[in-house]
Write a structure and sequence with these properties.
alpha+beta; 2 domains; two-stranded antiparallel ribbon; 16% helix
């Protein structure tokens, strides 16, 4: 029987391939993402947030607009639909978006011709 070492430095028995598969099946919960994602942040669905800031970010070589929301650690990268929603409601000057209330809703969207889950912004009046 092999042994492995946990984060506290304790040695634990490791019985082989079956144990290895069990460990790898749970790896997803340890992977963190820098930005909000419909796939990994389902708890935001239907909740109301206040916009704390708007900033640009280079993602894969492309400048994207992002929102920082009060109460959330990760920012939201804005797609064209969400930018249009915010600019229609609050104007083209992103300074006017700060302190506005929005809700986030997880919806099915088309991305590269395939349906996938995305985060859509709804304005709260």
């Amino acid at each position: 029987m092999r042994h492995s070492q946990n984060a506290r430095g304790e040695t634990t028995p490791f019985s082989g391939a079956d144990e290895w598969r069990k460990i790898h099946m749970k790896v997803g919960k340890y992977v963190t993402q820098k930005f909000l994602s419909a796939r990994s942040d389902k708890d935001v669905d239907g909740k109301i947030f206040i916009i704390d800031g708007v900033f640009p970010e280079i993602i894969n070589g492309i400048e994207k607009l992002c929102l920082r929301l009060k109460g959330l650690e990760k920012p939201l990268v804005l797609n064209q639909t969400n930018i249009s929603t915010l600019s229609t409601a609050f104007g083209d000057d992103t300074d006017h978006w700060v302190n506005q209330k929005i809700s986030l809703v997880i919806v099915t969207v088309m991305f590269n011709g395939s349906p996938t889950e995305g985060i859509q912004i709804k304005v709260v009046r």
